[in-house]
Amino acid sequence: AGCNWTRKDNPEKNGIAVFNGNVGQLGVNIENSVSLPEPDTLICSYNVSFKKEMADVIGGGFQFNLQLDSPAFKGNKTPDPVLGEKKSITWDCGDKGKIEISFEPPIESLFFERGNKNQVRAYYVPSNIKPGSKSFKMTVKLPQGSAYMKSSKENYDLADTANWSKNLLSWDKSPVDLSYLNHKPAGKFGQVKAQGEKLVLGNGQEIKFWGGNIQAYALFGTSDENIPIQAKRIAQLGFNLMRLHHHDSDWTPNVFGANKAASTRQLDPKMMDKIDRWIKALKDEGVYVWLDLHVGRNFVKSDGIEFFDDFAKGKDKAEAKGYCYLNKSIQNLMKEFARQYLEHKNPHTGMTTKDDPAIMGILITNENDVTYHFGNGFLPDKNVPEHNKLFNEDRKKFCDASGLDFEKTFTTWLPGESKIYLNDLEHRFNMEMLDCLAKIGVNLPVATTNLWGCPAFSLPALCDGSIIDSHSYATSEELSYNPKTRPGFLAHIAFGRVAGKPFAITEWNAEDSPDHRTDRFTLPIFVAAVSALQEWNAPMIYGYSQQRLNDSGKLSSWSSFNDPALTGMMPAAALIFRAGHVSPAKKTFCLKFDRESLFFKSIYAKTCAAARTLLEQSKFEVALPAVKELPWLKETAIPKGAEIFSDPDKIFIPEGQNFVESDTKELRRDWKKGIQTINTPKSQIVSGWVGGENLKTADCEFRINTKKAVAAVQSLDNKELSSSGKILITLCARVEALGQWGAEPFVSEPVTGKITIKAIEGLTVYPLKPDGSKSDAISANLADGVYTVEFGKPM
Prior knowledge:
The chain is of the alpha+beta class. Helices cover 18% and strands 26% of the residues. The chain is built from 14 helices and 43 strands. Helix 2 runs parallel beside helix 3 (269-284).
């Protein structure tokens, strides 16, 4: 049972935080006070009361997650933690010193969870509970010179939301119109093609896509009248791509309609009409469409899948992720769906989906790989005997042909020979599906599945597609991460960039957690700037909306259309990425894998300092080797002029330096201060913990009072700021719900302070209303060619 906590700071005890918690099902109440008497010492005093007698309780208490492979140790293995007799945990961190955790008096039990030395459980709830209470103290001592970090929210001013602004964003209109960046209709110049690392139009012109997701209820529940209204707004916000997602998932209305419980082999005409209307409306506004063929389809028994009961476990419906790689009948149903979906004629465009040049890309199956996530699903302990038999037969056949050790390919959860086999299994499925698409007549960029938290050994099979796709979600304080020791979410994304292939990100956003969405307003600028530097082709936020687009809706991690913290920043981000306000990196670095490092090690952003430290400096790519067991895997052709290296532990930031700067000198992030600066001729932006700082760019000076905010000054007429006749200023800080998360009203923290801008004479400053119309002009002092714009009251 989970423990419910509330916090109340005690003003009479300076520096002490007081928490109350309870586990209702156990009748346990906990009072806890926390103090920091020294920067490296944490003391927690607990009083635990038990209301009722209970026997055979597993226990309850703390779980400590020790990062034994922390990049802070630069690859050096640290000794295992040592457990004292119910009273201490000691972790010798080498030359960093020791972490010591002690309990006084000793607690009920102390042990490694399932033997994992990086996970310690400390139970203070006994196995046999008697009514009463007990008290104990926990002291955590860090190595000398260490200090505890505040949580993200502790760094902010207490939120006086009474002064925050309501309804700064209209749900059906845009405050800025960037639709001029789109050509209309989408597909005007022919179908999009993958050409080397670029995506190009039919006329050969390169195109970059700034996109989002329209998914689930938004697809099928938005009224016919509101679909074109939303398509227009999407274009005005600066988007030129939308992915239609969760079209087949069982938890939402889907393309199978009301008949989905009986069969998923027929498309419902009424539901397909919604898909058709979205494609038509978006196309008319110059917004391209990315289609998925398989996301969350729940197959049913009557679909006729062989060995259905093997993985359905007696249920009438079940997903088949993983199993589709071995089960031919599932593959046949996926091919059948692809033919129906892509050969369907859209009455609103008069074209079949596969032939519509407004469709720019296709994903075969979403988050469904066997190389990392679903390869364990065939093992004996999963109780799928028929699929285990298929697995063993297929594995034996592959090992006989390749010379790999049959027993070693069994350990699918470990790096090694199993990863070579699983890539081949995934590859053969990919070839089946790609051949099906070719026979249908599809001539578009196709991604097979996605890189989503996977190490590099998942990349070979992903290269079967003509475009590679990656997913990742941000935690809080991404601008404060030290890349020498910790990966941000963009470093996880970057690992999918194989040299020579276009690169899409069909999902990015903040993680769905109160702790991780507070500073989400910093993400659009960060993603756009790094994507432009890296020359990524198609970043898409997840999502534009997952809820019906018929009213203002509610705040949701999966719907950004009404969120000033995300959608309010999208025009500024679109200018960075699509209008070329941030330049591509000058240099390219390529991490070249060999067979050993690719398959027999688990190399990903957390274990690769090179990827983390290059991400915001220069272009980072990876190159794969030819491997004799995989004759289809060709050695990656490395771009001309790229600097090749093979050491993933190499750090590309000098010792003692607390910032990372792009080789173009346009981007800089000071992780110690948690500030990102963009300084280009057309966009000058500061983001992060900017409050109280005096931050200067070529034409601007930012003096922001709000502790954490984004302030962007950008040209809207493609001229440099100093000569622009139309400048956009965007300010954003926290956005919260006044009540429960998501519920209306939700409010925006005002950004206060002033900005000076060097610009031509004759300009007037107008705050923009949510519908894009101008409010009354505000004064802006002009002296010596420099405007001073002050921001006080909410606007």
